[in-house]
Amino acid sequence: MLAFTPHDATHLSSTATLGGALANLALNLRRRDPNPNTNPKPNPKLNPNLALNLRRRDPSGLRGGLRPLISYEVALMLEPLTIAAALVGCVMNKVSVRARAWAGRGLG
Fold this sequence. Notes:
The structure is a single chain. This protein is an all-alpha fold. The chain has a domain at 71-108. The chain is built from 3 helices and no strands. It is elongated. The two termini are 35 Å apart.
């Protein structure tokens, strides 16, 4: 489209994806879950400030609830699997390229 080589286009795509992910993280890092039903029940005996925090609501969602909008538990669970899948995909790509080259030599 813009006459980029596949090598350059891959790097530009990766850079754009990283930039979008960092912008999304920066915008959502301080936000809280605005739904009070998903927050844990306060126990004033354990932490009296917890009950006070539940009463203070901010419509923008910056200080809304107690739970962050980003689920770090899910991210910690999915990220190793994502990295492993990328590594398996790279290995399969290398193997398939070599297998096609090997099969092509045998036909000649």
